[in-house]
Amino acid sequence: MPHDLNVVLVEPEIPQNTGSIGRLCLATGATLHLVDPLGFEITHAKLKRAGLDYWEHLKVCRHPSLEQFIKSLPPEAPKVFFSKKAGHTLFEHSFQKGTYFIFGKETAGLPDWVINAYPTETVRIPMYDARVRSLNLANAASIGVYEAIRQLGA
């Protein structure tokens, strides 16, 4: 695909989010990476319903742990970690072809060790009302992927 983007879900817990993100990946030509353990079975009906009949066409890669996934990447692979704890926003980041968009699980986000190890590669999506704790995972993935596509040229 033209941008070779990758969406990485670390220990996703909600099958509907994963199904929606799978649909996003297929629509944008991105590869979906799932880091175990998953909070549901990959055959879960809600995942299939959210992904509709697209799931069979999606490129999905499974990884046994976040540590092993990161170690498997080439050192120069562009990585962007999403966290509300990040010091800068995704709009300040210059995306590259082949970027890995890495999202933590819905209830806990990414582990602190990741955010501390990759401070310049960790971004947040700005929210303008303090009453909002976080965005839905599928919405956040969509915002990130389409911002990269906008920067790289649709």
How would you describe this protein?
By secondary structure, the protein is α/β, with parallel strands linked by helices. Helices cover 32% and strands 18% of the residues. It has helices spanning 15-28, 45-51, 66-72, 112-117, 137-152, and strands at residues 6-10, 31-35, 60-63, 79-82, 88-89, 100-103, 122-124. It is globular.
Walk me through the topology.
Elements: E1 6-10, H1 15-28, E2 31-35, H2 45-51, E3 60-63, H3 66-72, E4 79-82, E5 88-89, E6 100-103, H4 112-117, E7 122-124, H5 137-152
Parallel strand pairs: 1-2, 1-6, 2-3, 4-6, 4-7, 5-7
Q: End-to-end distance, in Å?
A: 12 Å
Low-confidence stretches: none
* Percentage of β-strand residues: 15-25%
Largest sheet: 7 strands, parallel
User: Rg from C-alpha positions?
Assistant: 14 Å
Estimate the mean pLDDT confidence. Answer: 92
- Total strands: the figure is 7
In DSSP terms, counting alpha (H) and pi (I) runs of 4 or more, how many helices?
Answer: 5
Return the string of H and E elements: EHEHEHEEEHEH
Overall 3D geometry?
globular
Strand order of the largest sheet: 3-2-1-6-4-7-5
Question: What descriptive keywords fit this protein?
Answer:
seven-stranded parallel beta sheet, 5 helices, alpha/beta, about 150 residues
Could you provide a short overview of the structure?
With 154 residues, the chain is α/β, with parallel strands linked by helices.
